[in-house]
Amino acid sequence: MSRPLNRREFIQNTGVAAALAASCHVVPLLGADQKSPNEKLRLACVGTQARAAANIAECASEDIVAICDVDSNNLDKAGETYKGSRKYRDFRDMLDKEAGKIDAVIVGTPDHCHAPAAAMALRLGKHTYCEKPVAHTVLEARTLAQLAKEKNLVTQMGTQIHAGDNYRRVVELIKGGAIGAVREVHVWVPVSYTGAKYTTDKPAPATLDWNLWLGPATDRPYTEGAHPFFWRRFWEYGSGGLGDFFCHYGDLVHWALDLKHPTTVVAKGPPPDAVSCPVGITVDYDYPARGDLPPVHLTWYDGPNPRPEIASNLKDKSGQPIQWTSGQLFVGDKGMLISDYGRHLLLPEDKFTDYKRPEQSIPNSIGHHKEWLNAIRSNGPTTCNFDYGGALTEAALLGVVAYRSGQRLEWDAANLKVTNSPVAQQLIHKEYRKGWTL
Q1: Whole-prediction pTM value?
Q2: Which residues of the chain have pLDDT under 70?
Q3: Which domains does the chain have, with CATH numbers?
């Protein structure tokens, strides 16, 4: 795919997805133009505050040659840190003017601008790091994965916990058969992004270019609070709890069980609002068998207190309830495993007292950002490239589609098609504002 897609073309010809087949999990060799280990990479950065600031800081050993932010306060602050970097307000302008002077791009905007910025960078042949979720629609995620494959570029989605030791030890246990075959998983996160309303009674701050902040979204007056963080409450800019955390907590499940695309998705929650994400929802995903691995049913819970009943009934070896506020619970035919970002337990604990853990087979990470930077130089793989990260994003966003449409999705991943619901199919992508492309 070499030219930008729009929503109308997608809906008229959903068969385009056949050309967007997923790439392998390992980044191909880059060729003779790779950077030498001692040469600094030239980076351009889209977004400079919050997660974007952290991402840039993790890559500050390289040459930060250009930075972009729609808020001049953020831009000036970043400019003081990265003196000598060229400053821009519009990432399209920056990428166009800097194309011949940069090697890679970091994207750290609100979700609705992830794909337009990342797609432009990829089309220009630039290695790309993008915060999670890598996109705001299912089609965007698949398009980025295909562009990265076509252009033979090194990509990394910003799900930093993937580099943590705890996740790696859990993957070794699950793949090593510690709890047997896993057919059921529960994932819960106590987050709630709700109460979003468009406002029209106040002008945008003088430092903020609201038109650029909107990017591809619908042209509308400034809404107080959307910038810099509460955009997560709005469907038009974010995707609530699923958008913020599925790529973190669902990551471990996808990794440990070799999951990619669900075949059915059902969501439950309060009646959908056209503007605001809900207080909390539950989403059921069915994934097919993968070789000798059985089908998996994954249930996602978010909201103020989303702990599933099965997790609420768990007890440790002293008989005390295991009351983790967030986590993943793998249910196997020989036991269970509960985990979160930094810990895990095999259950029931008494059964595993003498269990011999498998030898470490997954090396500890050198760092999520360093993986990406080193892979650009050395032909190496990244662990959360846009093929893997794109599939995680697709799963999260299919939960959004199921909830907002009120439909049980029967999903044909190869063709990006909701086979049983034209209503839900309309939400697989969206119309971009004039001047913005994927």
Answers
A1: 0.91
A2: 1-38
A3: 7-162+366-386 (3.40.50.720)
